[in-house]
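pasting for ref
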Amino acid sequence: MERDDRLAKLEKLKASGVDPYPAHTKRTHTVAETLAGFTDFESKSATIVLAGRLMSQRGHGNLTFGHVRDGSGQIQIAISKKEIGDESYKNFNELADVGDFIEVSGVCFLTHKGEQSLLVKDWRILSKALLPLPEKWHGLKDEEEILRKRYLDILINPQTRELFERKARFWGSMREFLVKQGFLEVETPALENTAGGADARPFVTHHNALDLDVYLRISVGELWQKKLMVAGFEKTFEIGRIFRNEGMSAEHLQDYTSMEYYWAYADWNDGMRLTEELVKYVAQETFGTLKFKIKDFEVDLSQKWATYDYRQTILDKTGLDIEKIKDAGEIKNKLQDLKVEYEKFDEVSKGIDQLWKYCRRSIAGPGWLIYPPKVVSPLAKESAERPGYVERYQLILAGSELCNGYSELNDPVDQDERFKAQAAMREAGDDEAQMHDKDFVEALEHGMPPTTGLGISERLFAFLADRPVRECQIFPLMRPKKVED
């Protein structure tokens, strides 16, 4: 086995007095810096010390070529027996393997084919790899193996590396935009006594020091950030991890990164304007374009964004008027007629949500879903113009919802009543209904100014990249690999 061969080489290195895992390197330049200053380094015969992973190795008698890669790039190296001596040359060819981390010092030169290279004067091992790298063209193919060994996927597939570099730009540009708009970045608790801010099933864990069960948060501090509005802050945002103990799909995960902002003295119209600017800015900074192919849709973020009225859209696409629905059975019959697979429900509000999910599938966007009914929006402010409906908006792209914002409910009596209604739904078996947060109601009783808020998750990045959201997580959660006897 190749691992056994490498272990034998490891022992030989140790026996010869070589530390195969030294703590320090004398690197003077990165590969990118070397290539950028190559002509100057070559003319001055400057000694360059590089450190990186040996990616290839091929011998030609008394000359061996290879490639060394660090985090900035890759360069060819040439190792000559004449330059480094018989013993060192023999050790490189017999004890060094592709995948090892090495340090090489030498001078820049051009090969007869014109390739920028480093003529090695000395080398040493930095980290002996005991397992081989996947072959470039015949390596990781199994989807589960790719996700489980993401470190190898990133190493051998430039597209994967670029994906996560783009994802970093995605969150970086979002943070940059909000800070420029005067928002203060905050951090709120990830462990909560009451899981609030969304309709979702939380994860439960035990806090040993306090001897109580707590929940991992299901929103990026929605109720906490609203308390900050009570405290006098006017613009806050948080980018952080949230946890929802729900099903998996191409669009849904159990733990993922999301952003929420809250803006005092602003309403949902202000929020829609700002969020459109935010999404366009982030898309341009991350992908360099506002035009995207997402699933089977062509999406152009630069065009005028449409609006989709919740009630009217459902009426147009299903023939049902949600104001005239009498019971959940009526909705189930319609979904069956439409040949729609749907999640089990008994409440009319849950059924209405299922109807909307069917309707949105054919909407390319970009545009805003507006005026959903109050019964599906326990934290949004009711519209004065449309009683029974709320000032809530969701970005629709390629048949899915990519953000959620609204004019925040700041009436403590109304909020308390809605929490009680949600609590009754939980007692009836709906474990995604919201919990009654008495502390939050008390905070509202001290007074919260008119406020708008928005939540937007990494699903937006996955959609713009046209990839399943799980593939866009650098290390997605996997079942433990079965250990063979």
